[in-house]
Amino acid sequence: MSFWNKDLLRLAITILIAAIASSFIGHFLYLLLIICIGLILRQAFLLNQLEDWLRSGAKSNYPSSSGLWEEIYYHIFRLKKAAKKRKKKLSLIIEQFRRSTSALPDAIVVIGEHDEISWFNNAAKEILGLKKKDKGQRLPNLIRAPAFVEFLSKKDPGIVLSIKAPVNGQVTLQLKIVTYDQNAHLLVAHDVTFLKNIERMRKDFVDNISHELRTPLTVLKGYIETLDDMGEDHSPLLTHSLQQMHNQTLRMQHLVDDLLLLANLETQKTENNCVVIDTLLKQICQESSALEQLNSRIELFIESDINIFGNDQELRSAFSNLIVNALKYSDEESIVTVQWYQSCDNVILSVADQGEGIPELEIPKITERFYRANAQRENEKHGTGLGLAIVKHALSRHDAQLKISSELGNGSCFSCIFPKRRFC
């Protein structure tokens, strides 16, 4: 029999006794009222007893009772016991997580809705200079670098910020925001000092070796031209050899020039002004057509009068590389289309050719230095392998993106997308 049925049976027996008693003394309703008042007082006492037990945290065993109230106490006690087990399990998981994150070499900071610090690992103490008393403080109040404050306000997972460490100016940090809840974020700081030093050494090496190669190449080129001009009685073998030497020297000269240009794009700051794109594109197309001796190959369409705030020489280098590549890697009878137009909040330069196209898997790689797509074709069309790398770096300095679409056998289209903030 359930506890509820027992209470009902007890109530029924009490009413029956009251009815039997009333048959002798009368006043059945009064007896029934007294019974109801007694039951109400008993329930109030038991409710108060339950409230006292819960207020104390339900730490001790539940009070002894009977009937339905005993069942209620039992279920509460059982739920509390299960919750205690879950809490203990969660505590172990959280503790294990904290130990593992504390052992990470990267600094990790948990920040809330208003950028207040909730938790951080040991690496954050060493890299960011945080202390135990900083918990609850707003992170921008502790790290006041303007670039960091702006980065933290955006909370964009796609943005990576490189700054000097607050506690050591010799250390370079790479910061990233990870959102794991609606108003909860992780700030991850990675020490990239070693990688930055290697990158700087590589750039310095390329820059220095390029400068050192310029002088011997100039001397070698001068002597080759002198030998070639000494007379017309050269043997066919010598004439061919001089021509090959001259071609390879020119190729080396172009490689050195491209390396120096790429190094400048990566390191040097340049002055920006309003570049008239209409005039610039017409000049580049005329020069490129003159080099190819095919004045009708390029079709230029200027569909927007928007100009770009940037560096004239860098944009000229990027645009000319795209146009020359389109001419070089397409049939001599085909047309190269150059178009300058506006699309929504962007302005776009597209260079489309009717060449062989680029395999889809190679498209993300062709902007890397010295990467060769379709090596067989490259043997016929010599290049430095730095053209698209120069384009990519020049565009990045103008907040622009390079989008490449291509299909084998149907040509390629290279689009330079400039944002509205670059309009002038």
From TrEMBL:
The Histidine kinase domain, residue ranges: 208-422
EC number: 2.7.13.3
Subcellular location: Cell membrane
Pfam name, any one: HATPase_c
Reaction catalysed by this enzyme: ATP + protein L-histidine = ADP + protein N-phospho-L-histidine
Coiled-coil intervals: none
Biological processes annotated in GO: cellular response to phosphate starvation; phosphate ion transport
SMART domains, per the entry: HATPase_c (SM00387), HisKA (SM00388)
Any one GO cellular component localisation term in the record: plasma membrane
Gene Ontology MF annotations: ATP binding; phosphoprotein phosphatase activity; phosphorelay sensor kinase activity
Task performed by this protein: Member of the two-component regulatory system PhoR/PhoB involved in the phosphate regulon genes expression. PhoR may function as a membrane-associated protein kinase that phosphorylates PhoB in response to environmental signals.
Main location, first listed in the record: membrane
TM spans (from-to): 12-41
Gene3D superfamilies in the record: 1.10.287.130, Histidine kinase-like ATPase, C-terminal domain (3.30.565.10), PAS domain (3.30.450.20)
Organism encoding this protein: Methyloprofundus sedimenti
Protein's UniProt name: Phosphate regulon sensor protein PhoR
Top-rank taxon: Bacteria
Keywords: ATP-binding, Cell membrane, Kinase, Membrane, Nucleotide-binding, Phosphate transport, Phosphoprotein, Transferase, Transmembrane, Transmembrane helix, Transport, Two-component regulatory system
